[in-house]
Amino acid sequence: GLDEQANAVEYLVHHEDVRRAGPDPAGPRVLDADAEEAMWRRLRLMSRALFRRSPVGIVLERADAPGAEPIRAMPGKATVTLVGRPSELMLYAYGRTTVADVQQIGDEAALAQIRAADLSV
C-alpha cells in the first residue's frame, strides 16, 4: 500500500520529465479524478518536507476542486499561494517549477524569492 503510493509519485514525476523534455515538449495531461486525489493526499503528507527549502510560506490550492481545503505547506510571514491540479503541484514541489502548470499568487517580493529558490528534491 504505502510503497505503491510512494511509487505513484515517483512514476508521475519521472514520466512527466520524459514527456516535457526535449525540443518539442508535451504539455500538461489530464489525469483522472482518482489519480489527482491520490496526488493531493500525498501532498498533504509530504508538503512540509517537499517545501522545506522554501524561503517563504507556501499554501497549496487545488484548481480542479474549488472550495477544497488548502494545504499550508510552510509557515511564513510572506506567503505564496500555488494553485494547480494536484499532479502539477506535485511536479512543482519536486522542483519542476518551469514546466509545472501552476499559478503563483503573492506579493512581488515573495514571488521573487520563490522563483529564485532551488526547490529540487
**Number of H- or I-type helical stretches:** 4
Computed over alpha carbons, the radius of gyration is 14 Å
Oligomer: single chain
Q: Largest beta sheet: what is the strand line-up?
A: 2-1-3-4
Description:
- Helices cover about 45% and strands about 15% of the residues.
- By secondary structure, the chain is α+β, with helices and mostly antiparallel strands.
- Strands 2-1-3-4 form a four-stranded mixed β-sheet.
- A hairpin with an 8-residue loop joins strand 1 and strand 2.
- Helix 2 (about 35-50) runs parallel beside helix 3.
- The longest helix has 18 residues, at about 1-20.
Q: What characteristics describe this protein?
A:
single chain; 121 residues; alpha+beta; 4 helices; 44% helix; globular
Can you give me a brief rundown of this structure?
This protein is of the alpha+beta class and 121 residues long. The protein has four helices and four strands; from the N terminus they run ααβββαβα. A four-stranded mixed beta sheet has the order 2-1-3-4.
Question: Any chance you could write out the topology, listing elements then pairs?
Answer:
Elements: H1 2-19, H2 33-50, E1 57-62, E2 71-74, E3 79-84, H3 86-93, E4 103-105, H4 108-116
